[in-house]
Amino acid sequence: MGRITQYYHATSLEDAFAKAKQLGPVAAYVGGGVELVLRRNPEITTLIDLSHCGLDYIAASREGIEIGSQTTLTTISRSADIRQYAGGSLAWWAGHIAHNNLRDMITVGGVIGRNQPWNDVVPHLVALGAQVRLFDGTERITPLSDYIEAKQPGAIIKGVLLSAGNAGSRGFLWRFTRTQQDISTLHFSALVNCDGKVMTAANLVFAGRPGHAALYPRLSEELVGKSLSHETFARLAEMAPDLVEVGTDLRATGEFRRELVRAAIVNLDEHMTGVAQ
Ligand SMILES: Cc1cc2nc3c(=O)[nH]c(=O)nc-3n(C[C@H](O)[C@H](O)[C@H](O)COP(=O)(O)OP(=O)(O)OC[C@H]3O[C@@H](n4cnc5c(N)ncnc54)[C@H](O)[C@@H]3O)c2cc1C
């Protein structure tokens, strides 16, 4: 790993972006620093600290909730607004993954900035339909699912937006692991909205396949407009293993992952149809 020769305390977003633009690929923004301390691109020599740029906030409005990129997992887990959003799934997971000391440091900006394929938070944010507010001289908003497909080098993640339109839906995340502390062999996350007994919207996301988080609109189509019944989910569980691209790595074979895909849909079935308490 390369030596850090400068730790730059940016005083504003404009200041941070100007410094990053001036230095190019040898500079990196610091969230909680958890990833950057352990593993970083060897060419990085300057770290740009964002802690004085006003990015540590959770703001609720009529449009939804915006989480500033310097907000830690611990703060997210304790937010009353996020605890009420989509059944509280994001708050619950933000308070249970990793270790409590790490949750005090890991920021939502750092999680998205790194986005390991096995990351727990990103697939759930994608399922929740999150958008990111980026700053690269001007501000713009883009769906998180698009951002992770084509990151914008140099752009600062300013915040994550959760739309009020999804607040009443139900959010889920399952991480299949060999032990509680292990990196998962598969993630499945879902957001489902219902009108009575009919599903009106659904986002289904798989990650750690071992590829990174991806939405599966073809599977969502199978739920939208259908009744909340075991038969609906049984059809989905039959289709999903053929549609979700899985592979083999050190953690699991593709065959095992295909079986987990089916099990993931069974979990969703049991939670949506009331079998699971
Ligand atoms: C021991 C250990 C256990 C872990 N356990 C888990 C776990 O259980 N579940 C899980 O999901 N993850 C886990 N992680 C991974 C952790 O979520 C990631 O390492 C995450 O990237 C750390 O966030 P950070 O804020 O410290 O990021 P940093 O280390 O500060 O940054 C990570 C990357 O994001 C970039 N970045 C940071 N902020 C911004 C911004 N605002 N705009 C643009 N780019 C930015 C940085 O330049 C860097 O490239 C674990 C990590 C460790 C070391």
Q: Which features would summarize this protein structure in a list?
A:
single chain, 277 residues, alpha+beta, Uridine Diphospho-n-acetylenolpyruvylglucosamine Reductase, domain 2, Uridine Diphospho-n-acetylenolpyruvylglucosamine Reductase, domain 3, Enolase-like, domain 1, 3 domains, 5-stranded antiparallel sheet, 4-stranded antiparallel sheet, 12 strands, globular, binds flavin-adenine dinucleotide, Mopterin_DH_FAD-bd, FAD binding, CO_DH_flav_C_dom_sf
What does this structure look like?
The chain has 277 residues and is an alpha+beta fold. It folds into three domains: 6-49, Uridine Diphospho-n-acetylenolpyruvylglucosamine Reductase, domain 2, CATH 3.30.43; 58-166, Uridine Diphospho-n-acetylenolpyruvylglucosamine Reductase, domain 3; 170-272, 2-Layer Sandwich (Enolase-like, domain 1). Helices cover 34% and strands 25% of the residues. It has twelve helices and twelve strands. Helix 2 (34-38) links the parallel strand 2 and strand 3 (46-49). The protein is globular, with a radius of gyration of 19 Å. The model has no long low-confidence stretch (mean pLDDT 95). It binds flavin-adenine dinucleotide.
